[in-house]
């Protein structure tokens, strides 16, 4: 089951927004401002690289959004083609034999 990336307030780190994904937290480094690390509260592992499952989740979500946009564009084109065909039929009716 996919998890969502959530943001919340975390006083322990002196920051307003912390991204979380499951047990992972994205936290700004105190010693390197602007640099973030990832901390797993269950395993107590810290790492600089985004956890694989988090990155894969974001890739899936990006792909879903792209596919959704592509479906909408195809639908828009289809509706436009139907409207053009209807307009053409009204402007140039076919011979009813």
Characterize the structure shown.
The chain is of the alpha+beta class and 97 residues long. The chain is 41% helix and 25% strand. The chain has a single domain, classed as Ubiquitin Ligase Nedd4, Chain: W (Single Sheet), CATH 2.20.70.10. It is built from one helix and five strands; from the N terminus they run E-E-E-E-E-H. Strand 4 (36-40) and strand 5 (46-47) form a beta hairpin.
What labels describe this entry?
97 residues; alpha+beta; Ubiquitin Ligase Nedd4, Chain: W; five-stranded antiparallel β-sheet; 1 helix; 41% helix; 25% strand; rod-shaped; WW_dom_sf; chromatin binding; WW domain-containing protein
Distance, first to last CA: 60 Å
Q: Please give the domain count.
A: 1
Major beta-sheet overview: 5 strands, antiparallel
**Share of residues in helices:** 40-55%
For the record, the CATH class is: Mainly Beta
Task: Indicate the CATH topology.
Answer: Ubiquitin Ligase Nedd4, Chain: W
Topology diagram in text:
Blueprint: E1 6-10, E2 15-21, E3 24-28, E4 36-40, E5 46-47, H1 52-91
Antiparallel strand pairs: 1-2, 2-3, 3-4, 4-5
Can I get a quick summary?
41% of the residues lie in helices and 25% in strands. By secondary structure, it is an alpha+beta fold.
């Amino acid at each position: 089951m996919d998890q969502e990336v959530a943001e919340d307030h975390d006083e322990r780190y002196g920051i307003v927004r912390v991204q979380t994904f499951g047990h992972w937290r994205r936290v700004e480094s105190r010693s390197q401002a602007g640099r973030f690390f990832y901390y797993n509260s269950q395993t107590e592992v810290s790492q600089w690289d985004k956890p694989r499952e988090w990155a894969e989740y974001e890739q899936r979500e990006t792909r879903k959004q792209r596919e959704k946009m592509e479906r909408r564009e195809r639908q828009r084109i289809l509706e436009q083609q139907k409207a053009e065909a209807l307009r053409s039929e009204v402007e140039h009716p076919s011979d009813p034999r």
